[in-house]
Structure formats: C-alpha cells, structure tokens
Design brief:
Elements (H helix, E strand, L loop, with lengths): L1 H20 L4 E6 L2 E7 L5 E7 L2 E8 L5 E7 L3 E12 L4 E13 L5 E11 L10
Antiparallel strand pairs: 1-2, 2-3, 3-4, 5-6, 6-7, 7-8
Length: 132
C-alpha cells in the first residue's frame, strides 16, 4: 500500500514538473489589482491584455516587426506604467516575453514594481521570425 501511495505521489510530481517546464502559448500574471494576460499566435505575435475587475484597460500586440511597447494604465484609483518586449532568439528556437519595468499602484500611495521574464515559447528554428 505504501508503495502505491509513493508511486502516485511521484507520478503527480512528474506531471506538475513537466507542465511547468512546457512552453505555454497563453498565460497570466497578477500584479496587485492589475491582471496581465497574454497569448501567442502561430505567427509569433503576442496579444497582451491588462484587466482590472473584468474591465479591459489596455490591449495591444507585440510582433517580430514591433517587439517593444511602452504603456500607461489607469482606472479610478489605480495607475501603472511599464515597458514590455518580446525577445526572439531564432538560433535557440525560443522567444521570451519580458517585462523591462512595471511600476504600479493599487488604491494606495505605495508603489510596487516588477521586472523579469514572464513567459518562454518555442519558435520553429527552420522558420525565420516574421515569415509564414
């Protein structure tokens, strides 16, 4: 019985690890009151959306032709500004969605900030970025 429980635990652990390492074509991250959602299209564009309480504040697309976006968001008591980019690395067959900087305030005078890689996704090494 103990062996079966151990096997099930190991199987679940392997499943969680493989899921977290897999390339994702969509995702989201919560920054206080701001939720950022993204999805990657087959032609390597990244659709980005910022939401507060089910209200879309901003929506834009990053692409191989326009990989960088600076933005400002605001609602009644919340503000945010930042720089977001996609770094394409065709030699590695990867692209990275990266927040260069994000400074936000949610219903308080205290600012918070974030910077770092949000997602990694695969691009075919044989297909040049920006071509179908």
């Amino acid at each position: 019985m103990h062996c079966i429980k151990t096997s099930i635990c190991m199987l679940l652990l392997c499943l969680v690890c493989s899921t977290s390492l897999a390339d994702s074509s969509y995702g989201s991250k919560l920054f206080g009151c701001f939720e950022m959602e993204w999805d990657v299209t087959p032609d390597h564009q990244v659709n980005v959306r910022f939401v507060i309480n089910d209200e879309t504040l901003s929506r834009f697309t990053l692409s191989p032709d326009e990989p960088f976006r600076q933005f400002y968001l605001s609602s009644e008591t919340n503000t945010a500004e930042g720089r977001l980019r996609v770094r394409y690395k065709p030699s590695k067959g990867k692209a990275y969605l990266k927040m260069d900087s994000f400074i936000y305030r949610c219903s308080s005078p205290n600012e918070r900030s974030y910077s770092g890689i949000l997602a990694e996704f695969a691009i075919p090494a044989s297909q040049p970025v920006g071509q179908k």
